[in-house]
Amino acid sequence: MNPDIEDILISEEEIASAVNRLGEQLTTEYAGKNPLVVCILKGSVLFLSDLVRAMDCPLELDFMDLSSYGGGMESSGQVRILKDLDTDVSGRDVLIVEDIVDTGNTLSKIFNLFEQRNAASVKVVTFLNKPERRTADVKVDYVGVEIPDKFVVGYGMDFDEQYRGLPYIGILKPSVYSHLFN
């Protein structure tokens, strides 16, 4: 275990099980359709890779990069588009892939954007869900794992661009980020 990790919250095996379950649900949901699967960069990349391999249906991929965190650990509430889609969503069934839904502010902005762009449908699959932190009224259609309000890293999720490659979801030790509060 990485020395900066206080505890492993979700093991590699639990990740695989949740991804396989979601893949089966999404295969059923999108049977006979060709959804546009939109990965929210960067944290969702590992989840997306595993998820689309677990889905047995035609699909297309695209990527968006949005920022609401900067280098901190709390959402700023301001969402900026750093990289927009290359694909037109008009008339498309869109599946947004998130690593974690926390406040829901980023997701709310994406929903509004895709609605303005006339997507036929917009659904969300997230690996982690923190409902107690929600400040925006957003619907999460598919959830891998619901977690408590802890600062987590690993499986694509980071703190200051570190820890993304951990094969598990770990709780970051407060000593790693406590300097932000001094």
TrEMBL record:
GO terms for molecular function: guanine phosphoribosyltransferase activity; hypoxanthine phosphoribosyltransferase activity; magnesium ion binding; nucleotide binding. Pathway: Purine metabolism; GMP biosynthesis via salvage pathway; GMP from guanine: step 1/1; Purine metabolism; IMP biosynthesis via salvage pathway; IMP from hypoxanthine: step 1/1. It is found in: Cytoplasm. Its main location: cytoplasm. Keywords: Cytoplasm, Glycosyltransferase, Magnesium, Metal-binding, Nucleotide-binding, Purine salvage, Transferase. GO terms for biological process: GMP salvage; guanine salvage; hypoxanthine metabolic process; IMP salvage; purine ribonucleoside salvage. It catalyses: IMP + diphosphate = hypoxanthine + 5-phospho-alpha-D-ribose 1-diphosphate; GMP + diphosphate = guanine + 5-phospho-alpha-D-ribose 1-diphosphate. One of its GO terms (cellular component) is cytosol. InterPro entries: HGPRT, Hxn_phspho_trans, PRTase-like, PRTase_dom. Purine salvage pathway enzyme that catalyzes the transfer of the ribosyl-5-phosphate group from 5-phospho-alpha-D-ribose 1-diphosphate (PRPP) to the N9 position of the 6-oxopurines hypoxanthine and guanine to form the corresponding ribonucleotides IMP (inosine 5'-monophosphate) and GMP (guanosine 5'-monophosphate), with the release of PPi. Belongs to the purine/pyrimidine phosphoribosyltransferase family. This is Hypoxanthine phosphoribosyltransferase.
